[in-house]
Amino acid sequence: MFHDKRRWCVRPAETPEEVHTCMFPQTWPHCTAIEIGGYLFLNDSLPEDTSPMDCVVVKRPTQPGARFLQIDSVLLAAYTDDGLLGHIRRTLRGDYDALATNCEVDPRLETASEHAGWCCPFCTPFDGDRAAMLASLPDCH
Q1: pLDDT value at position 68?
Q2: Element (H or E) spanning 140, and its range?
Q3: What pLDDT sits at residue 113?
Q4: Is 141 a member of any domain?
Q5: How far apart are alpha carbons 29 and 10 in whole angstroms?
Q6: pTM of the prediction?
Q7: If both were cysteines, with which of 6, 67, 72, 127 could 104 make a disulfide (CB 3.0 to 4.6 Å apart)?
Q8: Domain assignment of residue 2, yes or no
Q9: Domain count within the chain
């Protein structure tokens, strides 16, 4: 995880296809996280970066006091549309949970109401209507 100080606004997803729809257009703000089944897909791109989005996948701890586990880093440009959906499905099956490269991380996660309570530099530029932008993110359409 490149950004250890970034604050991510967590949005729920219900299916791998919904996560895919959120990720593939590569247009979500840098402060967005999509959560499904204990996995969070965090936008880990650089703010000044105009290249395709980087996404970090972390898994919520299952034990009290445990830390999050980073299990993947995804450069979306490396995937075709179908390839990305397959990768998301493998992630949600737990195929990458035990890799030697996994590491513990401490992402700063917020609900939409918590995130709306401060002036986020990443979502403020989105047409000036932060409340509408934040409300629109769960659909990802």
Answers
A1: 93
A2: none
A3: 75
A4: no
A5: 12
A6: 0.79
A7: 67
A8: no
A9: 1
The identity of residue 83, as a single letter, is G
DSSP characters over 6-69: -EEEEEE-SSHHHHHHHHTT--S-TTEEEEETTEEEEE---TT--SSPEEEEEE--SSTTPPEE
Amino acid occupying residue 29: P
Can you give the residue range of the structural domain that contains 13? Answer: 7-136
DSSP state of 127: T
What are the residue ranges in the chain where pLDDT is below 70?
Answer: 1-4, 24-28, 47-52, 117-141
Asked whether residue 33 is assigned to any structural domain, the reply reads yes
Residue 1 counted as domain residue: no
Report how far residue 50's alpha carbon sits from residue 106's, in angstroms, rounded to the nearest whole number: 26
**Secondary structure of residue 93 in the 3-state scheme:** helix
Which pLDDT does position 140 carry in this prediction?
Answer: 38
Predicted confidence at residue 57, as pLDDT, reads 93
DSSP code string of 71-139? EEEEEGGG--HHHHHHHHHHHHHTTTTT-TT-EEE--EEE-HHHHTTS--TTTTTTTT-HHHHHHHTTT
Cβ pair 10, 35 in contact under 8 A: yes
Token output for 46: 């650089």
Residue corresponding to tokens 């998301």: 88
Whole-number Å distance between alpha carbons of 135 and 102: 32
The position carrying tokens 């996995």 is: 39
